[in-house]
Amino acid sequence: MKSQQKCIVIFALVCCFAVLVALIFSAVDVLGEDDDILNDDNCSDICQVVLVENIPEDISISHEGTTSLTAGLHSLLDLAQKSVEIVSPWWDLNSTEQDSRFPQAKQGRLLLHRLLGLKAQHVQLKIASSTASPELDLLSHYGADVRYLNMTALTKGLLHSSFWVVDRKHVYIGSAAMDWRSLSTLKELGIVVYECRCLAVDLHRIFNLYWQLEYKEFVPTIWSKRLSALYSKEEHFSFHLNGSLARAYFSSSPNIFRPKDRTTDTEAIFRVIQDAKRFICISMTDYLPLLSSTSHTKYWSRIDGMLREALVLKNLQIRLLISCREQTHPLTFNFLWSLQNLCIQISNCSMEARFFSPRVRDDGSPQDVHHHRYVVTDNSVYIGNLDWVGNEFVYNAGAGLVVSEPGRSSTLSGRLRAVFDRDWRSPYAKPLQPNKIPTCSWSTAGVKGHTGHTEDTAGPNASL
Ligand SMILES: *[C@@H]1O[C@H](CO)[C@@H](O)[C@H](O)[C@H]1NC(C)=O
Ligand SMILES: *[C@@H]1O[C@H](CO)[C@@H](O)[C@H](O)[C@H]1NC(C)=O
Ligand SMILES: *[C@@H]1O[C@H](CO)[C@@H](O)[C@H](O)[C@H]1NC(C)=O
Ligand SMILES: *[C@@H]1O[C@H](CO)[C@@H](O)[C@H](O)[C@H]1NC(C)=O
Ligand SMILES: *[C@@H]1O[C@H](CO)[C@@H](O)[C@H](O)[C@H]1NC(C)=O
User: Fold this and answer.
1) Does residue 202 lie within any of the structural domains?
2) Distance of CA 187 to the CA centre of its chain
3) N or C: which end of the chain has fewer CB within 10 A?
4) Ligand 4 site, CB within 6 A
5) What is the pTM of this model?
6) Pairing between strand 263-264 and 244-253?
7) Helix (H) or strand (E) holding 16
8) Ligand 4 atom 2: the closest Cα is on which residue?
9) What is the longest distance spanned by two Cα atoms in the chain?
10) For residue 348, what are the domain limits?
11) What sequence ranges are listed for the domain PLD phosphodiesterase (predicted)?
12) What's the gap in Å between 348 CA and the centre of ligand 4?
C-alpha cells in the first residue's frame, strides 16, 4: 500500500516536471495579449478587397481593375489608428540616390517618411526582420519596435514573408518587399483586404509567431495556443468579399513554423490545384523543382508532381508565366519542356509556358522585373510570398492567402484572371520555343553546387 502511494506521488511529480519543461521549452507567451479574442460582434464577415499592383513606368500595360501598390499601402496607413505590423524580407526604401534615374523611386522615401511619422500619431509600428539595416535602426530610433529573428539558426533559410497587419483589421499580403524597387522598377502584385478582423487576426498570429522567435536559437516543439491558426484548409473563414460569398485562410512556411492547425503553403497550393475544375494560371518569378544545399541537389517533386497529375489525370489547362532574367536557372526550361511534352497525344491536356521579359540592360542581358507569386484557377486564388523553388518552401519563411469563391460570381478570381491574361497576351511574354533555351539564361544547363536558399536576386544588392 505504502509503495503504491509512493508511486502515485512520484508519478505526479514527474507529470508536473514534464509540464514545466514543456512550458519552458515551448517559448510560449503565457501572458499574451487578450485582444485577439473574437466574437460575433467584432468578427465582421463583410470585407472589401482590392488587388494592388506595381507596374513599372516603362512597361506599357494598364491596371486591369487593380489599384497601385503605393496607393494601397498609403490607404492602409491612412486607416491606421492603433498598430501597424510589418514583415518584409529586407528594407531598402530610402531611394535618395536613385531619384534622378528613376522618378518613381521617390515613392520608397515617401513611404519611409510616413512610417517614421507613425509614432507621432500614436500608432505603434512593429517590425519583424531577419537582417539588420540602417533603415531599421532609423525606424527604431523613431519609436518602432523592431525584433530580429536568427533565421540561420532557426531554419538555415531566410525570412521571405511580406505582409502588413493594420489595427488587426486590415491586411496586405503579396510579392513586394519594403524596397523602393517594389514601388517603382519591379512588377509586383498583392492584395489588400479591408475591414476584415477575423482574417487580420489570423495573419497577426503568423506575425506574432515571428515576434516570439526573437533571440531563439531553435524552433519550439510546442507552440502557444495563441499562435494556433484560426482558419485552415479544413476550416475556412466564410465571408462576403465585395458582396459575393467567399472562403479564405492563410498558409505559412516552412513546415517547422507550424503551430496547431496552420496549413502549410505546399498544402494550400495542393488544395488550390486539386480544386481547380478547368484551368490553372501560375505567375511566378522562378519555377525550379529542385532542393539544393551546399553538398548536394535533389529533385523536389511536391509542386511539379501536382501539376503533372493535374495535366494527365484531370485534363486541366495549365499556363505558367515565369520571369525571364539573367538569374533564371537554365534547368527551368528543361522542367517546363518536360511538363509541356507530357501532354503529347492526350486530348484536352494543355500546358503552355511563357517568359516575361520586358527590359534589358545595356549589355543586352534581361533584367529582373516580373516579381509575381500567385496562382489563379477557375474558382480560387493563392497569393503568396514564396517562389516555386524547392528551397523556398523547405527553408524559408513565407505566408500565403487562399481565397475560394464557390459561387458563380468569382469577383477576385475573375479579376486576377484578367490580370494574368493581360500579362500573358502582352508583347513582353514570349513563348517557350522547343529545344531552344531562351536568352534569359546565359549560363549553360547543369546543376551547379549553389545553395539555392541564398538571397533572392531581387534583393537590395540586385544590380539595375
Ligand atoms: C472582440 O470583442 C471582445 C468582447 O467584446 C473583446 O474582448 C475582444 O478584445 C474583441 N476583439 C478584438 C480583436 O477587437
Ligand atoms: C537616405 O540616404 C541619404 C544618402 O544615402 C541620407 O543622407 C539620408 O539621411 C537617408 N534618409 C533617411 C530618411 O534615412
Ligand atoms: C545566428 O545563429 C548562428 C548559429 O547558431 C550564429 O552563429 C550567429 O552568430 C547568430 N547570429 C546572430 C546575429 O545572433
Ligand atoms: C474534352 O473536352 C470536351 C469539351 O470540353 C469534352 O466534351 C470531352 O469529353 C473532353 N474529353 C476528355 C477525354 O476529357
Ligand atoms: C471591391 O470593391 C472595391 C470598392 O467598391 C473596388 O474598388 C474593388 O476593385 C473591388 N475588388 C474586386 C476584386 O472586385
Assistant:
1) yes
2) 15
3) N
4) 315, 347-348
5) 0.88
6) parallel
7) helix 2-25
8) 348
9) 89
10) 45-456
11) 155-182, 366-392
12) 6
